[in-house]
Specification:
Blueprint: H1 24-27, H2 51-55, H3 69-91, H4 99-112, E1 116-117, E2 130-133, E3 136-138, E4 152-161, E5 164-173, H5 179-197, H6 206-218, E6 222-223, E7 229-231, E8 238-242, E9 259-262, E10 265-267, E11 273-275, E12 282-284, E13 290-292, E14 295-299, E15 304-306
Antiparallel strand pairs: 1-4, 2-4, 3-12, 4-5, 6-10, 7-8, 9-14, 10-13, 11-12, 14-15
Length: 328
């Protein structure tokens, strides 16, 4: 169990946690208004589509994506493109910018690189990225709501190119954010990288959850259990499900070549959330903010290699100075 909200704050202030880094008054933002959604953007005909865009079905069965050789090199390319699209998109985040404008930036970044936005048309999702603001847990649809000073927003990018999907996301602040929100963002990044660094071939994937929950609970945050990472490659969402909370149902084992995502969501309040009328946007019932980061990785002979990085090894998820998982 993590520290009680009545326990002294981890920062050493001498205040109770609920009066310091989990002070609701400092964390909560005005409720997000779900705005109008513009029609989906066109993708040039010459760019290859995933099968579900072409035939409307989500197949083949979600078997684990274990890659090597030429297939792994194609996966590296897709992940590099995803990292580039994410970097361009988060650079466009600013006060007064709408999430639909961020979608436009990302869409252009995809097609410039010959990539298809994996979310566009996936189970009829209408946009090229997901943008989740403040208490929106995940799957927020870009719309005409302008970002406000002090908001935080998660940008989730998936690029389909060379027959592979590369998936990554980052949470960033808008304008000047409260220090308490900055710590939430930093802790979520740390938890993501700790989960990746705890992957070892031949060992249970549960080690990801062990590391994520340890980092989160040390600072009093909860970890969302209903969503997790997933296998990925030629299939967008494949086995195994990557749990970020500890559960006896987790039987997956890491094997070399397995491609997967690690993408924990940390929350500052209660666990309950509700799906909005759009059928996608997941909103925390108590209005408290959450954050998420995501990398696509491949299991190596010694650990895990992060694939969703730029040419210099950094990304919006793992900036310079962050500890990367070991490459095999």
């Amino acid at each position: 169990m993590g520290p009680s909200r009545n326990a002294p704050c981890w920062c050493g202030s001498g205040k109770k946690l609920k009066r310091c880094h989990l002070d609701r008054a400092r964390l909560v933002r005005p409720a997000v208004r779900i705005g109008a959604v513009r029609p989906e953007r066109a993708v040039p005909e010459g760019i290859a589509r995933p099968h579900y865009v072409l035939d409307g079905t989500v197949w083949p069965p979600p078997e684990a994506q274990v890659l090597s050789g030429e297939a792994l090199e194609r996966m590296r390319h897709a992940c590099r493109v995803a990292a580039e699209v994410l970097a361009e998109t988060v650079a466009a985040v600013g006060v007064g910018v709408t999430t639909d404008e961020l979608d436009a930036v990302a869409h252009e970044a995809y097609v410039t690189r010959g990539a298809y936005p994996s979310t566009l048309g996936y189970h009829d999702y209408p946009k090229s990225i997901c943008t989740s603001v403040n208490e929106v847990l995940c799957h927020g649809i870009p719309d005409d709501r302008p970002l406000q000073d002090g908001d935080i927003v998660n940008v989730d990018v998936t690029a389909f190119v060379d027959g592979m999907h590369g998936d990554t996301s980052a949470t960033v602040g808008v304008g000047t954010i409260a220090p308490e929100l900055a710590v939430l963002i930093d802790t979520t990044r740390d938890a993501t990288l700790a989960g990746i660094a705890n992957i070892r071939p031949g060992e249970p994937m549960q080690r990801v959850a062990e590391a994520v929950t340890s980092v989160a609970k040390d600072r009093g945050y909860g970890v969302v259990s209903e969503y997790g990472g997933h296998g990925i490659g030629e299939v967008f969402h494949a086995d195994p499900h990557i749990h970020h909370t500890i559960t006896s149902r987790d039987r997956a084992v890491a094997v070399p070549g397995l491609c997967l995502t690690v993408e924990p969501m940390l929350r500052t309040g209660a666990p309950r959330f509700t799906t909005a009328d759009d059928g996608w946007t997941e909103v925390l019932d108590d209005g408290m903010p959450s954050a998420q980061f995501e990398h696509t990785v491949v299991v190596t002979g010694t650990g895990a290699e992060i694939l969703t990085v730029l040419a210099d090894g950094t990304s919006a998820v793992s900036p310079a100075g962050s500890v990367h998982a070991p490459a095999g």
